[in-house]
Write a structure and sequence with these properties.
Blueprint lengths: L2 H18 L7 H7 L3 H9 L3 H28 L1 H20 L7 H19 L9 H17 L5 H7 L3 H9 L3 H28 L1 H15 L10 H22 L2
Helix pairs in contact: 1-2, 1-4, 2-5, 3-4, 3-10, 4-9, 5-11, 5-12, 6-11, 7-8, 7-10, 10-11
Length: 255
């Protein structure tokens, strides 16, 4: 594949990465793993590769805009069906990290269960108690949200919901509120720079353990989008979520 086609493929793969970060319960980092662009993303952030970051960032912005305009309406009109869809996405995403775990032993199983329990507890929390408000809250939400955006198994959208800025941020995107978006963006940039260096080291030296932990995080985080009521249409949308991840896996492996 030519360099030009590689850049186009990276841009197109970055769209679902950005879209995922607008979905509560779905991890953008997990989608990056599914699409085989995770190492590229971490390397570009760690080493400040502007060209790669511009390509990934452009695709992610397109995905975020699509998510912010579509997801708000779906949540308002059919939240249960959306949860079924997201549940299918999240559960199937665990397959991508599990493939890199290797043979299961006692320690890996222990790490997986601890990560699962931690993510499960985190997913069931209602909201952070915070006295922050306004621009400071947006900056802090950007910092911690960015960590979740590139950490497989933790949903950036869920972090924003828990901090109480999810819906205001979607509104800011839809209304092009540049002040709030700029402050949030600064928090995101700082968070990415700090976290990418730490996680790059861990991934390089402890990949199988990290993938085991991430698998537990992904499975545990599925509780955030577990459907509360059984409906047949929900099963169909669950299957749609499963199929989409399988297609993304196939695309990621073959481009």
């Amino acid at each position: 594949m030519s360099k030009k086609n590689n850049n186009l493929a990276l841009f197109l793969k970055s769209i679902p990465f950005g879209l995922a970060n607008t979905l509560p319960g779905v991890s953008g980092g997990t989608i990056a793993v599914v699409l085989h662009i995770y190492e590229t993303l971490i390397h570009a952030i760690k080493n400040i590769k502007f060209k790669k970051l511009i390509i990934i960032g452009s695709g992610a912005i397109v995905g975020v805009y699509i998510g912010s305009t579509v997801i708000t309406d779906i949540y308002a009109n059919n939240p249960l069906l959306l949860n079924y869809f997201l549940f299918g996405l999240v559960l199937t995403s665990a397959h991508s990290t599990y493939q890199k775990v290797g043979r299961i032993n006692f320690w890996k199983l222990l790490f997986l269960l601890i990560a699962f329990g931690g993510a499960l507890f985190f997913s069931l929390e209602i909201q952070f108690n915070t006295e922050m408000s306004g621009l400071l809250l947006y900056f802090v939400a950007g910092f911690f949200g960015s960590v979740a955006m590139i950490l497989p198994g933790i949903s950036g959208g869920t972090i924003l919901v828990l901090m109480g800025v999810y819906h205001p941020l979607l509104a800011a995107i839809n209304n092009f509120n540049l002040l709030f978006l700029s402050i949030f963006g600064l928090g995101v940039i700082l968070g990415l720079l700090v976290f990418a260096n730490v996680f790059s080291y861990l991934l390089k030296n402890y990949e199988k353990i990290i993938m085991t932990i991430l698998t537990g995080l992904i499975l545990g985080s599925s509780a955030a989008v577990f459907p509360s009521t059984f409906i047949m249409n929900g099963v169909l949308t669950f299957i749609l979520g499963v199929v989409i991840i399988l297609i993304l896996e196939f695309v990621g492996e073959n481009t």
